[in-house]
Design a protein that fits this description.
- The protein is an alpha/beta fold.
- The protein folds into 2 domains: 240 residues, Type I PLP-dependent aspartate aminotransferase-like (Major domain) (Aspartate Aminotransferase, domain 2, 3-Layer(aba) Sandwich); 102 residues, Aspartate Aminotransferase, domain 1.
- Helix content is 35%, strand content 16%.
- It has 9 helices and 14 strands.
- The strands form 4 sheets. Strands 2-10-9-8-5-3-4 form a 7-stranded mixed sheet. A 3-stranded antiparallel sheet has the order 11-12-14. A two-stranded parallel sheet has the order 1-13.
- α4 links the parallel β3 and β4.
- α1 packs across α6 and α2 crosses α6.
- The longest helix is centred in the C-terminal third of the chain and has 22 residues.
- Bound molecules: pyridoxal-5'-phosphate (PLP).
- Pyridoxal-5'-phosphate binds next to α3.
- The site of pyridoxal-5'-phosphate has 13 residues, from α3.
Amino acid sequence: MSRVYNFSAGPAVLPEEVLQEAAEEMLDYRGSGMSVMEMSHRSKVYDDIIKGAEATLRRLMNISDEYEVLFLQGGASTQFAMIPMNLMKNRVADYIITGQWAKKAWQEAQKYGQANAVASSADQTFSYIPDCSDLPISPDADYVYITENNTIYGTKYHTLPNTKGKILVSDASSCFLSEPVDINNYGLYYGGAQKNVGPAGVVIVIIRKDLIREDVLPGTPTMLTYKIHADNASLYNTPPCYGIYICGKVFEWLEKNGGLAAMKEKNVKKAKILYDFLDQSQLFKGTVRREDRSLMNVPFVTGDADLDALFVKESKAAGFENLKGHRTVGGMRASIYNAMPIEGVEKLVAFMKDFEEAHLK
Ligand SMILES: *Cc1c(COP(=O)(O)O)cnc(C)c1O
């Protein structure tokens, strides 16, 4: 068996111990005689899995009883519709456009009401986070929406926007569990699992209980109503059982490794290795404004498209996978989520140094 250093933006690298444990439990989950994939979601053994996952996540993130934790499906993109359908009482919401995912969420919300773009960094290819200290927040906005870590462009909010008292909704798909967060700052905080937590399809929604209401927008499907899922403890219908089981294992892995503070420390260290190299390199350049850099996604370029392509090709041959940048940015992107070991980044930087020496004119 040989595993590569996988820098994919998502689905992405998972902790090896988690995969190993899942493999060991594949045919016979703890004496049940079946795989978690094969068991009833109404069984006691599965109930322990989903309840256990929620309990571990609550401990990890220090989530109070004022919040509901929901394991839903449809990926992060389904939330682009579910959020306005459930929260747009006044049919007004303010969106901050910091990349493609924010833009998609904003466009989707326009189907349900007046979705205002109150700030944007589109003018510079989303390479920065706009100043959000004094935005023209709409007086009747039901919420203010952000994409907290911009997976494609490699930016992250290091200060949350001043929402002027409005509820903050955050798509944290690509920074979920990467560092401690104060969940009390949010009305709704959600993430698709496949960036930092588990298999694609699962989306974790943490929502303040008073925002879960029956009077959603007319025509809202049952399956897209938070209240239905909250009332049924994420078991209204068959949930993505196996995916939730893996998420639970990742939560346990995080807890065993010191929780989110320890994870942040590791992530800062990892990102610093890469950013420090980029800052002094004669060949490679980061594409993001320094103070807005993400700990999770690091885009960089050489400035020469042919050389970028050569780098992607040669890095792949050397065992570094998925370093090609998003098509809208070009160049390269290294996603260094929780499960990427420090040595993966160290080896990547060593490879980049060699490449620089070979190609610097
Ligand atoms: C990947 C990603 C999405 C889309 O996730 P899907 O599960 O494919 O719908 C949305 N937002 C962010 C920030 C992402 O990184």
